[in-house]
Backbone:
């Protein structure tokens, strides 16, 4: 198993060393071991945990809520974790579908050039998601 010092982990996970120190103090991440000179060593799994933390932060969870979620995920089986995530995604999709339905009449009333300009201001991934949602709403589920 490869172990990383703080600086190496920071590069792999795309966060600052200070963030790693802070998350360690909060108990969000835990070092695997220490070197003879007392440097903390972290596993590759810690970088995946840092990615999860960042995703949850983007969803506006507090660090305390994130810690609770991570602790809950660690206690559950892999199947429960997947089920929880799929449920979360399904709820998120329902919310997006509702928002697309609300926007559709407004977009249809716009001039074609206006609608195109709005779509070009989105990130490519965002535009792709919107198109996929429109397909789902107009043609029903693919399965």
Residues:
């Amino acid at each position: 198993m490869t172990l990383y010092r703080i600086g190496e982990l920071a590069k792999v996970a795309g966060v600052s060393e200070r963030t790693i120190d802070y998350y360690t103090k909060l108990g969000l991440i835990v070092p695997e071991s220490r070197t003879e000179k007392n440097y903390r060593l972290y596993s590759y799994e810690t970088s995946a945990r840092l990615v999860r933390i960042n995703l949850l932060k983007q969803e506006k969870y507090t660090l305390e809520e994130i810690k609770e979620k991570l602790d809950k995920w660690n206690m559950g089986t892999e199947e429960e974790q997947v089920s929880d995530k799929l449920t979360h995604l399904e709820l998120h999709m329902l919310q997006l579908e509702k928002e697309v339905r609300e926007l559709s009449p407004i977009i249809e009333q716009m001039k074609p050039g206006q609608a195109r300009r709005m779509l070009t201001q989105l990130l490519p991934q965002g535009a792709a998601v919107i198109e996929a949602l429109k397909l789902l709403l107009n043609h029903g589920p693919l399965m």
User: Anything to note?
Assistant: The first strand starts at residue 3 and ends at 4. The two ends are 40 Å apart (CA to CA). The first helix runs from residue 6 to 13. The mean pLDDT is 81.
